[in-house]
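Hello again, I could really use a second opinion on something today. I've dropped the whole record in just underneath, so have a look.
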Amino acid sequence: MPMTQEAELPGKRVLILKPDELSPSDQKMWREIRTESGAPANPFLDPAFTTAVGQVRPAARVAVLQDDGSPVGFFPYERGPLGQGRAIGLGVSDSQGAVLRPGIRLDARRLLRSCALSSWEFDNLEAGQGVFVPHAVEELASPVVDIGEGFERYTQRLRAKSPGFLRQTLAKERRLARQVGEVRFAYDAKDPGALRALMEWKSAQYRRTGRRDRFAQEWITRLVGLLGESEEPECRGVLSVLYAADRPVAAHFGLRSRTVLSWWFPAYDRAYAKYSPGLVLQLRMLQAAAADGVGTVDLGSGPARYKESLKTRDLPVYEGVVVRPVPGGAGSTGSSREPARAPVASSATGRRLAGAAARALEEVGRLRGH
């Protein structure tokens, strides 16, 4: 039997479930609400992502908001000691928030109380999340590539915007073929060896740039494996590989829905760096994704020169924390988080979150004084 907990919000019944306790009708309603909201079909906000995280993160939960017995919202989260909460899959999730039927009004702290959370931390909050945006400490730009009009139309815009970028990248691909061997590309590869190579390259990149190695964390490696085996059309892993002389020289593991591909874990073999195999891979992947019905490729927040060259626009995302006036609430920020996209752990980020905690403490004092 499901270990269901119940709570109340004004006018709402809240069921707290483990992700694997979501019924098929719950998942269907979740997706219907996302469609109704008009939000992009980002795979990180699909129930399949939350369910996969639940298999590797035992503290994962979903608050199901009901009105007259029918779900009107879903809030996925992870719960830590003393009730410190975080976005589901924080550290690797690139789009976060609640899934609410349009018109639903909630108070963030009351929602946290219903979930027995003292705080809730986010670093890639989706735009339009009116419940949580007031608690953000920074707005970030998440570049995207629009390919819904087809790859040819996109390359026309790219040539107009960055004529040298496209010409030079294509020239490097030709040079790679001449000097190394035949170049081929697989958009949705079933190649365990290439995936292992990608993880090794990425781990080396993390260490080289002073970042925590995500693939040294077992839950992340397991999560990638689960999503790579997923057959859910709204959230499944896609491994794209660039080969030269039948050897993988660059690869990317991302998540896709029917219309959105999220750029997630890209890496390349540094022995071939002079050929810019990562950029060659990106262009090939954009072409294949456009042909496969993808309309948007979300490159994720965080600065990178190649993103500026490839993007067609930016989407806003937010980082911050909601804190309740309870023990453990204001003390939950700033110690363990590292932005998934930052080149190094930023002291500025620590200062922002420390400032958020200080403001939260002031707010706690004000609330307790009433």
